[in-house]
Amino acid sequence: MKPLYLSIKGFGPYLKAEIKEDDFKFLTENKLFLISGEIGAGKTTIFDAIVYALYGESTIEGRNPADLISHFIKNKPNIIPEINFKFFLDGKTYQIIRRPSFKGRAENVSLWIENKLFSAKKEEIKAKIKELIGLDAKQFKKVFLIPQGEYRKILIAKKEERENLLETIFETFLFSNLEDFLKNKIKDLKELYQSLNEREEDLKKIAQVSNFEELKNKIEELERKQKDLENKLKFYILKKEKIEKEIKEIEHILQLQREIKELSEKFENLKSKEEEICIKKEVLKKLKILKENLIFYENFEKIKIELKNNHQKKKNLAKNLCQIEKILESLEIEIKEVYQKEKEIEKKKQELQTLKELEKRFEEKEILHKNLEKVVELFQKKAKELEIIKEKINTLKREVENAFEEKDQLNRATFLLKEREIITESLKAFEEYEKSISELKTTEKKFKELKAYYENLENLKRDLEIKNSAQYLAKFLKEGEPCPVCGSIFHPHPIKTGNFIEELKRREKELLEKKEELEKEEKRFFSLQAKIENLEEILQNKDKEKLNKDFENIEKELSNLPQKYFQNPTKNFDILSEIEKKIKNLKTQLNYFENLETKRREELENLKKEEVALRERLNIIEELIKNYSSQEFKSKIDYLEREIKEWENKKGELENNIRLLREEKIKTQTQLINIKESIKKDLQEYKKIIKKLISLKREGFLSSINDFKTQASTLSKIEEIEEEISDFFNELERIKERLKEVKNNLEIYKKKWEPLTQKTLEEEKLYSELELKKNEKRLLEEALGNLNKDIGRVEKDILHFQEILIAYEKLIKDKKSLEDEYPFLEALYNIIAGKNKKGVSFHSFVLSLFAQLILKRANFYFKEFSFGRYKFIEDEVLQKKFILEVFDHYTGSKRETKTLSGGESFLATLSLALGTSDVILYLYRTRPFESLFIDEGFGSLDENTLEKVVNTLLNLAHHSGRIIGIISHLKELKDKFPVVLEVYKNQFSGSYIKINKNF
């Protein structure tokens, strides 16, 4: 991935900043560049912006991207926070634009491929970026930006801490979790096995057995007992069924005997009523004939009444028809007189229409007068409102001007206070500088004196050491034997014996004290020197007198400004926000009232036009009606309307009456014809009915027509009589048949029962036999009840012990499964947890493999950076102690990385970081990155080493094709790099970026 363009808006310390395509092209051509700037200027924010654009995440874990929104944006409402990043990958150009959630707007993002929109959906873009780069956000941060501090911890950390750091880098949490999982699993298996043993003992206690086989035997014994009880139950049931059958037979015989008695009595009773029923049969026959001919009698009565009514109706209709014809004749004469006045009425209607048209003009005149008054009144009201609005606008304009003046004063006060603060700091620096110069001279003098005294003490110590050694050698000198120092065999002046050891101890103690004092003074001297150099750099190009003069001018100008801005300067920003808010509100109000003023002017203009139009229309109407008065119009119109209405009402009433009478006449004539026809038909039917009734009388079924009236109530009971007769004969026949059937059944039982039992079927004997059988049955039922209870108890015990047996069988099976599983898991856990021959856990082994890969790759860089002196020891990583060591080619020995000096430690850290970056890219099989950023750490290198590291990184960049960016705040590094991407702070408008070229 190669960056092509980056735009940052409202993000971190940046308000607006961009690195253009030409700038990235220049950085790409030079391969190696420095990102320089003060602490907090926004160097790492460039990388933050790239990570946020790609993944929507911050580089710092736990920090919300919304927290990166710049505070400078508060005063810039037109700027919306946004990152626009363009990069080149696999021959294609990609552009991603991402905006964080801001002022109620949700986060939005869009991805463009070859200048065509790919998607604006977060999840789609996230998946596409992962597909393109091959890494998620966490992995991308590790290979794109190398934070030196994290990798330095690996060098100096203890074994466990180093493992934790490598675990974080390579995300090997799964392997340590696997160890914990197996440990917990084994613990759970032990606890489960123990609980199964406890459960087994519980089951034995419940079943009151000592083992599984005893429980099975107990169940078999209960099943045998159950079978014996069931056989006994079957025997009792068969015996009971036999007795029940005999009881039923006796009861049936008794029932048959009772039934014969009852049926015989009923048969005799029915026979006594047979004659009475035969008389009813004859009466029923006569009634049926009367009922069949009842319709003739009913029609006879009905036609007789109809004929009477129709004759009366015929008489009334003839009379009504005569009256209608007379009234109709008089109405036709009257309507002719009304039609003669029709032409006169038409003329009056036309006259009325003309008068009504003129009346509308009078009404319109009244309406126009009222409307005109309303328009004039409204015009005056709107004119007054316009004056008030004008006054309000002038007041608001004055308030806006005052607010702007107040804002300018506040901005000026804030600026002057800041300038005063800067000048005060510079003046304090001058004072500190002068004080430090004086202190430095004093310290230098004291340091030189201490140094001279220290050197003198060292000389005295050295003399005492020589004298002490000489005194020791003198003890062994013999005449004629060579001296071990000078080789002479003569020893004329051996050293005199003295107490050199005590003196040497005193001098060594004093030397140690003076050394500590000298080191302390030396440290203070160099600290003051560094402080003075730092102050000289700060005060460079600054004049104390000019600063004092500027301070006086600022104080003078501040005295002319309102004092409230100096009481609590930290609140000035809040005051400024309130003023701007006030200006915004005033402008909104001013805009509202100006729009309202325009609206009122338009309304007044429209009202003026409306007034003119109304006056013109009034003039026209007044011209039309000037010769008329309103009262004359009304009386004339009322008279004509009344006359026309009276004529129309009379005409309508007459026409309606004539129409109704004509309809009534036709209706009456039709009814008269229908009545005559009906009378004719009724007379014919009446004659037929009379003939039929006369024939019934001759046959003897009627004594007179009145018989139908006298027998009317009886006729309705024909069915009841029929049913009574039928029921009688049916019941007689049924009892006869049933009596015969019961007697036959009883004879059958006699033949069957008497030979079998040697007993007669006498009723008393049968009852005593029945009682004996019932007692026997009751005893059997009691015995059966007891047997069922015994069987139920046995079944319950069997079920209870079978449930225990099933639980026992499952428990044995579970225990066997655990016994098979536990040794395997324990062996696996021992291997993974490091309880093996090498004593290395699986997690440590995996980390060691990763570490070996890293060290192998890191040595490629470490060899170059250390001028061939150092290399990491790779082969000894796979061991229990997991010690990180380097081999020193200068001494031919190995040592731990935490013994390296500051500069050497930096080189080792950088090599380790670059190696880790390469290994992660290799492991994830992603494309090689064309860009790499290294964060801080170069300040610990000496001149030669720094030169070498820069050259090595430059060669690495050219050979690998990578663009390498070094992030540092150290100014002395600027001259070492061919290109510097400088980030400058600005407290008012935010940081900005500038590219400097060192050629």
Automatic annotation (TrEMBL):
InterPro entries: P-loop_NTPase, Rad50/SbcC_AAA. GO terms for biological process: double-strand break repair. Signal peptide: none annotated. GO terms for molecular function: ATP hydrolysis activity. Residues 179-280, 328-413, 440-470, 501-828 form a coiled coil. This is Rad50/SbcC-type AAA domain-containing protein. Keywords: Coiled coil. Residues 6-234 form the Rad50/SbcC-type AAA domain. It comes from Thermodesulfobacterium geofontis (strain OPF15). The keyword Coiled coil applies. The keyword Repressor does not apply.
